Every structure is written in C-alpha cells, then in structure tokens.
Amino acid sequence: MTPQTPRNELHTLHWQMSLLDNLDVGLMVLDSDLKVALWNNFMVNHSGLPSSQVQGQSLFSVFPELDTLWFKRKLNSVLTLDNPAFMTWEERPWLFRFNSYRPITGSTRWMYQNVTLIPLTSPDGKIKQIGLIIYDVTDEAVSRQALEKANLELSKLSRTDHLTGLNNRGYWETCLQQEFERFIRTQQPTSLILLDIDHFKQVNDTQGHLAGDAVIRQLADIIRQMIRTTDIAGRYGGEEFGILLLNTPAVNAEILAERLRYAVETRPIAYEGEQLMVTISLGVAAADNSFQDYQSWLEKADQCLYQAKESGRNQFVTL
C-alpha cells in the first residue's frame, strides 16, 4: 500500500473538517489557557458569533455570564487527571445560554444541554487542549419535566378530595398515623380536631344535595383560610372533617376550634338566591402517651365530638 500523497492528505483533512463543522452537535476546543481553538457551525448558528470572532479569544471574555469558578474547576480536573468529564442538564440546564428553536418544545426559551469534556493529547503526549461536545437535549429535558409534572399532578389527585380540594380520608389518615409516631419520638405537643356540620341531613332533605355540596365546600374554604400552612386538614367523611395541628397544645387548638365555630355560625352561604346558615360541632384531643396508637387518638377526638353534639351542638368539647 502506498502512503498518502500530501494532496490526498489535504483532501482527507478537508472532508474531515467539513464533517466536524456540520455535525448537529456543538464542537469546540480550548487551549490550556482556555482560549478557543475550534468553533464549529453548530456553535456559530446558536451563539450568533462567527468563528473568526471567537477563535483565539478567552472563552470567558466571549461568554462573561459563565460561572467562571465552577467551570474552571471542571476544566482543570480534565487537564490534571486526563479523564473525561460530563455535565448533564439535570446538574445545570445549560452551559451556554442558547435560544431554543426545537419545534416540539417551543414552550421553553433556552436550549437544554448535555456536555462532554475530553482531554486531547498533543503529538508530544501531553494534555494541552480540551474538546467540548455540546448536545441539544431540549426535547428530552422538556418531555422528562412534563412527565414528572404529570406524575406529580396524578399523585396530588390521588390524595385530594374532589369536592373540597382538601386531603382525602386515606391520605389524611396516613398523615395522622405519621404525626402520632412523630409525637411518640419527639414528645412535641400535637392536637387533633374533628368537626362536622350540625343537622346536615336536614340541609340535604330540604334544600337538596347540591345545596349540601355548597355547604361542604364553604366549610372547607373556611378551614383553609384559618389554619396554618403546617397544619393538615382533610375531609374525613361526608360532612366530617379532621385537622391536625402540629406543635400545638390543646389550649391553642381550642382557640382555633372556637374561631372555626364562630366563623361558620356567622357566615351565610349563598345558594340559588337564598342565604343558608349552618353550625358545626367540634371535638379536640391532644396527642397523649396513654394512647396505644393513632386510632386511639382519633377515637378520643370522636368522643369529644359526640359529646359536643349531645350537649346541644354548635360548640367544641375537649377531654
């Protein structure tokens, strides 16, 4: 086999450079002093900077928005250890803030990128340059985010009561069990309120079930307005609700119970031109070491609620 002639070598080099220049990935080479030695068409098209303007310039002078300290650590590790390094969009969404022109994911402004950094050996065997390959992974990133968002929404729906928007019974009772176990470990005061609507069957029988739904929704709104973000409210039954008050002794739970009772009693519910008035009864129980489990705690609050209703309704009872 005869060796290649210089003309053939030039021809080979020409098509190799043409191929590198037109790959659908970003290619660049940095010298050891972090000046740009190669800048292919992908980088030109997405940055808007021609290679003549970039080559021979410090990367950080061309892109001053780069996180200098972080990126220099990455580059130095490649030079020092003679090992490739990788950056994914999960670590940082992008290295270069390029606009996204992807037809599928037009909702995102910036191109998500994965980046590979490769040590390049010179003829004398020393590592004097670093090659960077920049991949446009916008479609993958946006699709992954959409899937995660959908899964989050499904998870939220699975634990949400559709009528009130509060936690449903299954999820709320799971929280109750977790908070009881936390109380046993930490002994931090925690209280539970059970409440339901007085004479709710009468509302359904005289006004209809849609009116009953309106009453339930308004009560849920009042609860949402009056509890803290750390408290956990849920619809426990048809017209029965539960509220977990974290780091709250019974005396403070009683204050909330009275505020809820008064708010419901004094706030009319507009329904088809009428003003419906209802009241609630409440049972308050603080977590206690005498309870064997969270069900015992729940039963104590239910006993208090029963006593409040037996004593005339529109009141709270603490035992």
UniProtKB/TrEMBL annotation:
<dbReference type="InterPro" id="IPR000014">
    <property type="entry name" value="PAS"/>
</dbReference>
<dbReference type="InterPro" id="IPR029787">
    <property type="entry name" value="Nucleotide_cyclase"/>
</dbReference>
<protein>
    <recommendedName>
        <fullName>diguanylate cyclase</fullName>
        <ecNumber>2.7.7.65</ecNumber>
    </recommendedName>
</protein>
<dbReference type="InterPro" id="IPR013656">
    <property type="entry name" value="PAS_4"/>
</dbReference>
<dbReference type="GO" id="GO:0005886">
    <property type="term" value="C:plasma membrane"/>
</dbReference>
<dbReference type="GO" id="GO:1902201">
    <property type="term" value="P:negative regulation of bacterial-type flagellum-dependent cell motility"/>
</dbReference>
<dbReference type="Pfam" id="PF00990">
    <property type="entry name" value="GGDEF"/>
</dbReference>
<dbReference type="GO" id="GO:0052621">
    <property type="term" value="F:diguanylate cyclase activity"/>
</dbReference>
<dbReference type="InterPro" id="IPR043128">
    <property type="entry name" value="Rev_trsase/Diguanyl_cyclase"/>
</dbReference>
<feature type="domain" description="PAC">
    <location>
        <begin position="92"/>
        <end position="149"/>
    </location>
</feature>
<dbReference type="InterPro" id="IPR050469">
    <property type="entry name" value="Diguanylate_Cyclase"/>
</dbReference>
<feature type="domain" description="PAS">
    <location>
        <begin position="19"/>
        <end position="82"/>
    </location>
</feature>
<feature type="domain" description="GGDEF">
    <location>
        <begin position="188"/>
        <end position="319"/>
    </location>
</feature>
<dbReference type="InterPro" id="IPR000700">
    <property type="entry name" value="PAS-assoc_C"/>
</dbReference>
<dbReference type="InterPro" id="IPR000160">
    <property type="entry name" value="GGDEF_dom"/>
</dbReference>
<dbReference type="Pfam" id="PF08448">
    <property type="entry name" value="PAS_4"/>
</dbReference>
<dbReference type="InterPro" id="IPR035965">
    <property type="entry name" value="PAS-like_dom_sf"/>
</dbReference>
<dbReference type="GO" id="GO:0043709">
    <property type="term" value="P:cell adhesion involved in single-species biofilm formation"/>
</dbReference>
